[in-house]
Fold each of these.
Amino acid sequence: MSLLRVEDVRITFGGVTALDGVDFSVAPGEVFSIIGPNGAGKTTLFNVISGLYRAERGTIRLADEDVSRLTPHELARRGLSRTFQNLQVFFRMTVAENVMVGRHMAEHSSLLSDLLGLPIVTRQNRATRAAAIRLLERVYGLFPVLAEKRQLPAGGLSGGQQQMLAIGRALMAKPKLLLLDEPSLGLAPLLVDQILDTINRLRREGMTVLLVEQNASAALAIADRGYVLETGAIAHAGTGAALLGDPKVQAAYLGV
C-alpha cells in the first residue's frame, strides 16, 4: 500500500520540460530520498506534489485519493506538510509564534498565551487544546533549542536553528506525509548530523518522509528507498543501500 503515488507526471515551463514521466510511490512509515544535480527538477516535483504547480499530465494520489487538482491548503488538510529551501521564517515573530503558525487551529491564541505566561483570553475546546500542546511539547523535545529560545524573535536564530524551526512548524500540522526540501542546505556538518538524526527519529515514530537533498551520501544513508533525478526523469532507483553501492551513482554524486 502506498501513502503517496506519483504517476507519469509531466510539466513544462516555456517549452522546456522540467519533469517527464516521473513515476514512484512512497510507503507508509518510510524515508524516500530524491537526489540529483541542480536543475534536475527536484523542487519542481515537490511543488507539483504540494499543489503549487499543476502537472500537465499524470496523477498525484495521497492515501489513495486523487489530489492532483487540489490547492496547497486543501492538501494540508489531508495531511501533507512541507518545508522550503527558503525557510520562510517570520523574523519579527517569536520562535513560539512561528511554531504555532503550523497549527492553523482556533486554539492558537490561547496556546500562545500559555507559552508566554499571559492570561488565557479565549475559551477553547480543552481536548483539542491539549492535543496541540502535546504536539508542541513533541517539537520542543525534538529541538530543545527552540524551547530555550521560544520567547525570542525568530530572526535571531542561526541558519541551523531556523531549519529546525521550519521542520518543527511543519510537524505542528500533524502530517501524514512530511516533505523536506534540502534540510541540510548551507549547514555545518554537526548540524547536518542533527537534522538527519531527527529524520531518523521521526521514521522510528512512524512518520513518512519524502526528502530532497543535494547531500547525496547523507540522504541515501538514511533512506529506505530513493531515486536519482536527472533532467526531469528518473535515472536510477532502488534502496538507499543499493544506490550508495551503485558505481554510476558513486561516480556522479558521491565523489567515489
Amino acid sequence: MRDELILAINLYCKLPFGKLHYRNPDIIHLSNLIGRTPGSVAFKLVNFASLDPSLQARGIKGASNTSKLDKQIWDEFFSNWDTLPYESEVLLAKFEKKPIEVINQISEAELPKEGKERVQLVKVRVNQSFFRSAILASYNSTCCVTGMQQPEFLVAGHIRPWSLDEKNRLNPRNGILMNALHDKAFEHGLITIDQDYRIRVSSVLMKQKKLTSVEDNFIKYQGREIQLPDRFLPDIEFLNYHNQERFKP
C-alpha cells in the first residue's frame, strides 16, 4: 500500500490540478500498473489535494476522507524533497519493469556506459525532469510573467539556487516558471517577486526605460501580480531570500 501511495504522490506532482480525473490517460496507466481502478486512483489524488497547503490557502479543500496513512506518506514525501522524488522514480521504474533511464527518456548516448559517474548523472537528470514536470503542471505550462505557453521557451527555475540549497532542489515551492528571458533576469537579480507575488524591476533596468525593448519586456510588468500556480505557491521564505540576497534594487 505504501508503494502505491508513493506512486500516487509522484503522479499528483506531475499532473495539472484540473486533470485529476479518472479519464486522464496518465491516471489510467498508473491504475493498470498497481492493479487499481482509474476512479480509485483519481479519488486518491483528490484526497492528497486536501492535504496540500497551497490549495488550502486558496480555499480549495479537496476530498475530506483522507486516511492516516495518506497523511503519513504525504508528510514523509513533502518533508524529504531531497530524496523521495528520486526514490519514487526508482519505484515507478520497478513497476514499469523498465530502466529508469528509459522512463525518463534519457539517451544512452549522453551517459557513460557504467560506473559511479553514470549513476550520479542519471540521478541528476531524473531529478531535473521531475522538478520540471512538477513546475510545468503547477503553472499549467504558462509563464508566470507574460502568460507565454510555448514549452520550448519555458524554464522551470529555482528561487533559491540549485547550488545553494540541496534540501530544496526538488521542492516545487522553490520553483518558478518563466520564459527564458525573464528566467535569466530573475537569476541575475534584475527582477524579483515580492511577498504579495508582485513583480519588481531592478533600477538597473528602470534606468533604461527609454529603450523600447526594456519597456516592453520589463518595465511594463512592474507591480503586476504574477500568474499564480494552481499548486505549490512560491514559498515566502524563498522569495524573501531572493528579494534580499539576489535582487538588485
Amino acid sequence: MSKKLMLILNPTAGSGSGVLAIGPAMEVLYKGGFVPTVFYTGAVGEATQFVLEHAEEYDCVVCIGGDGTLSETVAGLAQLSSPPPLGYIPQGTANDVATSLGLSKNPVQAAKIIVRGRTESLDVGKFNEDDYFTYIAAFGAFTEVSYETPRQYKQTLGHLAYVLQGMSQLQKISAYHTIVEFDEGTIEDDLIFGSVSNTKSVAGIVKLKKLGIELNDGLFEVTLVRNPANVIEMNKIVSNVLSQNFNGDQVVMFQSKHVKFTFDKPVKWTRDGEAGGAHEKVELSNLCSAIRILT
C-alpha cells in the first residue's frame, strides 16, 4: 500500500544541492512505496507553517535542506498532538543534526534510511513561550557567525566561511552579567558564551561524542564560558573546548531539563544557527522525545 509523504524542500540550502538531490531521492522514495507531495520553502518560517497546516494528512514528513530547514520542520511537528515520523535528507553547510544521528549526507543513502522505516525518539527544545530549537540555543562569543556569514560564502567555502567570519569578530567579544537558574541550582557570573544544546556536534567543528550525550534523555547539555581575565585564560578556554574538558574554572558543562537565563540588558541569541532575537530573560524547556526521526 502506498504511503503519503510530505516532502519539504529548501531550494537554496548548501549550494543549491537540495534541488539536485530531489530527483535521485524521489526515485528511491517512490520505489519504497511513498507518494511524495513537494512543498518548496521560499521564506523564513514557511516550513513550520506547512507542517502545521498539512503534516497530519501524511504518513511521513521529509525535509531536504540544512539545519535551518530541519529546525523549522521540527518546530511544526513539536506543536502537533500526534506528529508523523520525520525523515531528513541533509544538504546544508554544517548538518550538525545529521552528524549527531549518524545520517548519510548522500541523498540516495538518506532516502534509503527513510524507506527502511526505523525510528528513534528525539528531544526538542522550547525557547520561551512560542519558539523551538532542534539542537542548540546560544548567546555570546561567535554565536552570530552562523547567521551573519553571507550565504554565498557558506555555499562556496563551507566550514571555512564560519572560521573566517569568527576571526573577524575576535575584537567584538563582550561579557554579559548573567544569572543562570537550572534544576540543581543557580550560577551568577560574567559570561562570554552560553549554550543549551542537544547535539554531539556544533558547527561541524566541535565534537561532543566522547561525552556520552543522549539525544532523547530529556536533558539539555548547558555550557557556560566565564569572562577571561587575560590572554592566558582565553587560550585555556580554547584548549578546554577543543579537548572537551568542561570541568575547569573557565568552561563549565552540566545537564538540566529546565534552564532560565536573566541578563541586565537584552542579549542576542541564536537558535539552530538562525537569529533568535535579543532578550533580557530566556527560559528553555526540554520536550522529551517530542518527535520521532527516521535513522
